[in-house]
Fold:
Amino acid sequence: MNTWLPELIVRHTHRVPVPDGPRGDGAAAARRLDATLMPAGFKLSRDLLAALSELAEPAVLDVAARTLPAVQEMAGDHVRHNAYFRDFPDNVPDTLEFWADLLRKTLLDPVAESAARESLSKGTLNLLSLSGYGVYRHTYEDMLAVHDELITAAGDRVTVLHLGHGLAAEGERLYLRLAGSTTPLGEDGLTALRGLAGRYADGTQPEHIPVRENRALINEARVTAGVAPLVDTVTDVLRLACALSGGDVTLQEPTRFGPLPRPVRRSLLAALDGVVAADPGRLGDVAARREPWKRLGERLHPHEYPRWPHAAKVFAVARGEQRAPSFAARIEARLASGDTAGAARAAAGAPGLLFRSLDRLLRGAPGAEHAVLDAAQSVAHRVSGRVLLSVREHLLNRTDAPGGSRVFANRLGRGVATPDTRAPLDPDAVARLSDLIDAEIRGRLPSFGHLVVDPDALGVALPLSGKAAGHGLGVLPRGSVSPVDGELLRFFIHWRQRERRTDFDLSALLLDENYRDPEWLSYTNLTTVGGTHSGDITEAPEGASEFIDLSLQNIKARFVIPQVNVYSGEGFDEVEESFFGFMLRDRAQQGRPYEARTVRMKSDLRGAGRIALPLLFMRGDDGRWRAKWLHLHIRGHLEFNQVEGNRVTTATLVRGIAERRFLTVGHLKDLLDTERTTLWDGTAPPGPVTYIGLDRPEGLHPDSRIFTLANLGDLIPA
Structure:
């Protein structure tokens, strides 16, 4: 039996699908599974343990075989984490002492000594080429032998796995949640949706599929199965054609359309014809993507199908043979003539576009602010909840004096910071617009009855896009703030190259309260600022790990920014596997360099840049440390990226995120209509509640509505 679906469900929902039978005495096998999960920081809920205990032992073992790989991969425990210095974090040498020892060993090795002398004769010596540098000098078993057993601490992570329904029901439930998501999915979510759509796209569908990328993947499965696609814009059809050609459904990258079978061509042209026949104004969307439409027309041959004349108009517009101005063009024409109020009235025909243009309209509207705001108020009910909340968050950062910075992050997470040169907005206009949006969102949210909120979730940024977070365990959306409680903070990376020798470098940049006075830990600075680096690995054919250990009590800096640099070889999107995470430990725990139960966060490293900035750690005025999530990449150089070389760019980008205000769960909580709101204190109320937290606790009433990191986006109204 394929294990991809059960493992997918466990990863995305923390529920374990349990088969109906056969029945028997599986209690002993269930307890063994529970015990095996504990070192990875997981355990079975009471209900799940009881349900497994009623199955025959072979059935329990089958569930275990599907569950263990999923949870181990979630925590990064599916690979062996060795360290360059066997005793890490103990007995790590001073940097100069380390290089001197390597040089001495090289000069004692006749072969290596000859190569070193030849290099020196040319006036240089590549320290990274010294004998024994960059490769493990001991086995994984040798490393384990010198480390004491991890001592269990009360603060160790325990992630509870809950009882699920049958496999088919859980698969459909996950499909409907992903398909109906009100926010764009990340790479992992899109991959999951594409796989699930192949099973469920011709069955029950969510009432609404608001995200167009999701719709494209569902339509791909529907057309492949011979079912009519679900489209209501011409761009839906273009995205579908990209999906069928293996291209980019976001339309950010060009797609090379391949030959399309005749049934697929008929399906696409029929869909186009229906959209334009129902609303000829949709032709205005074509001009923005003329080139993709022209290339697609060469594959569809619309002239061969005279029964769909409205579809032919799409390609006539693309070729410039027919005029169909877009809303954006009409707005630009009015703005060019100085008619801001007229531009706002024209934009009201495309409510989402109007709200995304409000800042520009208000800045260019001396005396026309009321007209712009009246237009916004008249169509607010037609704007998606995600766009409304995005604008509301934008307004949070438009009340400051000029002179700050703006941070831009594309869908791949590549970040850029620029000075904010925009004129300020009128405070009264900002206040009116903010109140308008809050009222509209409040009106769309259902009554939640008794609301119970985990205090740690109040600082979580609303997931307005799944692209603003990586995939993994304990990963929060960009801008989220979470407490960091522990004595020792340990970062780790692991990567495995695919084809070429690849060197990733884990580093940490430390800055003062003014984002200056940089210090760093890296392979060039092994022991400093109260921290220790585990040593540099320069190739990873079987996988490699690096660590940084920091004593939070000894750090004088205000900000700690871990980063991963591609020094050479394959990038984050090219390697076979790469991920970053951090652990928290008490001093007395000891243990190996990597212990899964102490992992608080583990996130896959994917992105087009050559420098990754997963998150930053900030020490507040109260002395407590908190993490703020970045999920950003910097372009960097093709090779030889080092923390020393990018510290200015990193500091500028980090400052933009650190000082930016994000809409959080706490903001949404204040808008919810509830009978009663209480903070989670570890005790489950007796009746049904609405629970919002990072993870689902045990003991909640079975009829409770539960929102965790797995489905937090469901809080955002359509």
User: Anything to note?
Assistant: The longest helix spans residues 57-75.
